[in-house]
Specification:
Distance between the termini: 35 Å
Largest sheet: 6 strands, mixed
Shape: elongated
CATH class of the largest domain: Alpha Beta
Structural class: alpha+beta
Helix content: 25-40%
Strand content: 25-35%
Number of domains: 2
Radius of gyration: 24 Å
Number of strands: 26
CATH superfamily of the largest domain: Zn peptidases
């Protein structure tokens, strides 16, 4: 499709082009080759490393050669989520773009505006020799969505920039000057099965909106796994059962939208399930979750977990989740959060994935310590990995003030510094490049990491204008 009603044609041309290239996390080779090819065709210095990070240098416009270098940075990968029933192969298929007035979305999949808009803006600037600019560096990183992998693997000895604009924010009218750190945890619970001839039923939770496990964690959106825990615990108050199977969620940085569990019980489940279903529907607080459904159906199953393993699973599903504490100083926002993201029944183990976020290493430790404590109690194991640092710059730094001025001149509006309860590559990069000042900015993108993801088209236009104005100063 051709995006219409735009001011700046080239950024949207590149957004359309990269939407044709499958670029889920870990599958960035083709998008890296595409960017590398564009740079080489223009005769620019270009480095692509084994992690499929791409680093490009572009000289200053005439008369600005002696100015300090500015780096633009974005990540090439996207979260791959689709609605049930949607046939889409993220390894091979293009994203099907749909424009509805000023809104751009995809056909029942994630859009990839996170961080496709940033990549597209950088490619448009990379090709345009008419822009007044200081020396520029462009860093396109890989696998950001699965733990800032590319940013952690890049060799920063190539970087000479003293200022960096990260194009990975989802709110146009803010300048992000700090982000939380994070840690992922894999918990494995060994389980035993026993033969059963008792009736089995499958409980399915669907219709939740999910969302970004950092930016949306305080919006009252339900976590399908935690909700399943409440449903099962409610049923257990009236009917004894064992769990045979449970599965839900996919990405560690997405609030899970769906979960299913198979349980075996000697008693009739109808009344107990009706009570549990009403309880679940009563949990809905966010209007986006209004499509929640909780269903019960007969299911054939001849194996089930022991009672002990069932109790251990229910303990996992009863862990404190979402916002664990709030900041006490402005901006008031989550200070510590945890997302029970994935759960799978595999052979003789139940595997569970968590992500913890906080602004200090000590608070991250509090969350992972609680997971370790539970694991020790129920005979499970934990593996903590892909940690990343927090980051905070000065709200009155020259970089922040310059960007605010450029935004005001380009749009006639104001933009304010703030923090974000999510991980950004700024934390990794500023820890590796001493003396580098950074900000993160971006277009208005909503419902990230879900098939409802959408971007305001004119917002991307304004961010492009702002970055061009910033570079011209």
């Amino acid at each position: 499709m051709k995006i219409t009603g735009i001011k700046n044609e080239r950024p949207f041309y590149y957004f359309e082009e990269i939407s044709k290239i499958p670029r889920g996390s870990g599958n960035e080779r083709k998008i890296a080759e595409y960017i590398e090819d564009l740079a080489k065709k223009r005769g620019l210095y270009c480095l692509r490393d084994e992690a499929n990070n791409v680093f490009i240098k572009k000289s200053a416009s005439s008369g600005r050669e002696n100015e300090s270098t500015v780096m633009l940075q974005a990540h090439t990968d996207m979260v791959c989520e689709k609605n049930i029933g949607k046939v889409h192969d993220f390894e091979n298929d293009a994203i099907e773009l749909i424009q509805e007035g000023n809104i751009l979305r995809a056909n029942n999949t994630t859009l990839g505006a996170d961080d496709g808009f940033g990549v597209a803006i950088m490619l448009a600037i990379l090709e345009d020799d008419s822009i007044s600019r200081p020396p520029l560096e462009f860093l396109f990183t890989s696998s950001e969505e699965i733990g800032l992998v590319g940013a952690n693997k890049f060799d920063y000895s190539h970087v000479s920039a003293k200022e960096m604009i990260n194009l990975d924010s989802a709110e146009e009218n803010t300048v992000i000057i700090g982000c939380c750190g994070g840690m992922r945890t894999e918990l494995e619970l060994p389980v035993k099965y026993q033969k059963t001839d008792t009736p089995s039923h499958k409980i399915t939770i669907k219709g939740l909106v999910g969302g970004h496990s950092g930016e949306d964690i305080d919006r009252g959106r339900l976590n399908a796994h935690i909700l399943m825990g409440k449903v099962l615990n409610s049923i257990k108050c009236e009917v004894d059962f064992t769990v045979s199977y449970i599965s839900g969620g996919d990405k560690d940085n997405a609030i899970p939208r769906e979960c299913e569990a198979v349980i075996s019980a000697n008693q009739d489940l109808t009344a107990a399930f009706d009570t549990a279903r009403k309880l679940a529907l009563g949990e809905v607080k966010a209007k986006e979750d209004a499509s929640l459904t909780v269903t019960l159906e007969q299911f054939e199953c001849d194996n089930t977990l022991t009672k002990e393993d069932t109790e251990n699973l229910l303990e996992i599903l009863s862990l404190p989740n979402a916002v664990l504490s709030y900041r006490t100083t402005p901006p008031i926002m989550p200070s510590i959060s945890r997302n029970l993201a994935r759960i799978r029944t595999e052979d003789s183990k139940i595997k569970v994935g968590f992500s913890s976020r906080a602004y200090t290493a000590c608070d991250i430790q509090k969350s992972t310590d609680e997971l370790d404590k539970l694991a020790n109690k129920i005979g499970a194991s934990t593996y903590h990995h892909e940690g990343y640092p927090s980051w905070q710059d000065d709200a009155t730094s020259p970089l922040v003030l310059k960007y605010q001025s450029a935004y005001s001149e380009a749009t006639g509006k104001k933009t304010e510094p703030t923090l974000i309860h999510a991980g950004l590559e700024c934390g990794v990069i500023t820890s590796r490049v001493k003396g580098l000042s950074a900000i993160s900015v971006g277009a208005n993108v909503r419902d990230l990491h879900t098939p409802k993801e959408e971007m305001e088209i004119d917002s991307m236009d304004r961010i492009y204008d702002t970055v061009i104005k910033f570079l011209s100063k």
